Amino acid sequence: INAFINKLTTELESIFRNLRNDLHGRLPLVGELKKAIDDRLGTARSMSNIDKTSTLTGYFDHFIYLSESGMRGILVKPATLQVYRKTLDHLRAFEKKTNHQLTFDEIDQEFYASFLGYLRAEHKLSANTIGKQVKTLKTVLRHALEAKKHNNRDFESQAFKTLKEDAESIYLTVDELDKIESLDLSQRPTLDKVRDAFLIGCYTGLRYSDYSELKIENINDGFIEKEQAKTGQKVIIPVHDVVNRILLKYQGSPPPMISNQRSNKYLKELCQMIPALIQEIEIRQQINGSATLVKIPKYQLISTHTARRSFATNQYKAGVPSITIMAITGHKTEKVFLNYIKITRNEHA
Q: What sign for the dihedral angle of Cα 97, 98, 101, 102?
């Protein structure tokens, strides 16, 4: 940047000297100097380069660059960068839909209502997903405010809220996990590996991003030691008997892994083999922006993340103190941890 400024300064001084010579020593008028600069440098081109961060999406793009390159002074995880890019994609699509480029001054309650309506109508996003877009947008607006790119503080008002609702997530009971473990998948090697990897998640509380990267060197003296990919926090987890049986099956190593997306597909396929998981359960879903009760087979709600919820809930039901479970899952606050506890009202009673 300094090199660019120095070069530009030299060019401007040269333009000024040459113009003054042409005017026989007279100081040029502002208009005369502007025209000379435009003829030499091309003002429109230069201004487009300088002002690209003056629009919302232009600054958002700059913000992602700062985050990616470490220039914000904090370590930003790849998953977080992906969230940033997704929100920027939604904003650009919104601009295209409205045929209008957003400026910082236009980020008010009217924009908030229009943007949320667009996300619901065009993309059928849930309240929590929309909330994630709003949260990201507010982060960028706050960064731009601190960079003195605008002075619009409407986004700080209570009305500009981040939507959040309790996710309709399920967990698998110990009995259901036993049935999954007892399935004969000898003729389905891919399902067999997916089942074993999933059970490791169910009895360690690790996220997919962690148990999919589990190595033999992470397992020592009956404990799993792993640095969490999402938080960077180290957790130590006792090896459960089920996990030990799976490790012995693969000569002491975790089973080979496939992608998260394919794992989710195969998980639903193998869980269909268990009659109890075919039964329909009632959940609340957002349909066209309103909450509606629907019935759906339980297996359709199972994903790799169900493993972590199942671990936390089953340990909680077994009477293990929250603080002990949190030390294993890596949760820093009990409020966040309790979101993982999916006990029904009947079970509480």
A: negative
**Number of residues written out for the chain:** 349
Chain CA centroid to CA 160, Å? 20
Cα–Cα distance measured from residue 73 to residue 64, given in angstroms and rounded to the nearest whole number = 13
Q: b/e for 271-291, b at 16 or more Cβ within 10 A?
A: bebbeebeeeeebeebeeeee
Per-residue pLDDT of 323-347, as tens digits, reads 999 998 888 888 888 877 877 777 7
Report d(CA 271, CA 303) in Å as an integer.
Answer: 10
Cα–Cα distance measured from residue 165 to residue 127, given in angstroms and rounded to the nearest whole number: 7
Of 95, 87, 81, 64, the C-alpha closest to 134 is 87
* Residue 286 confidence (pLDDT) above 90: no
| Percent helix, percent strand, percent coil in the chain, to nearest 5 | 60, 10, 30
pLDDT digits (tens, 9 = 90+) for 32-53: 888 888 888 775 444 445 557 8
Helix (H) or strand (E) holding 237: strand 234-238
CA 43/CA 35 separation, integer angstroms: 9
Of 212, 164, 201, the closest CA to residue 335 belongs to 164
pLDDT at 304 over 90: yes
Counting other chains too, the contacts that 284-292 makes at CB distance below 8 Å and 24 or more residues apart are 284/168, 285/168, 286/126, 286/127, 286/165, 288/120, 289/120, 289/121, 291/165
Which DSSP category does 62 fall into?
H
Residue 213 has pLDDT above 70, yes or no: yes
What does the DSSP assignment read for 242-297? HHHHHHHHTTTSPPP---HHHHHHHHHHHHTTSHHHHSEEEEEEEETTEEEEEEEE
The gap from C-alpha 301 to its chain's centroid, in whole angstroms, comes to 20
153 Cβ contact partners less than 8 Å away, ≥ 6 residues apart = 145
DSSP string, 184-234: --TT-HHHHHHHHHHHHHHTT---HHHHTT--GGGEETTEEEEE-TTT--E
d(Cα 93, Cα 257) in Å, to the nearest integer?
35
Taking the C-alpha atoms of residue 44 and residue 21, their distance in angstroms, rounded to an integer, is 26
- Where is 309: in which H helix or E strand? helix 306-317
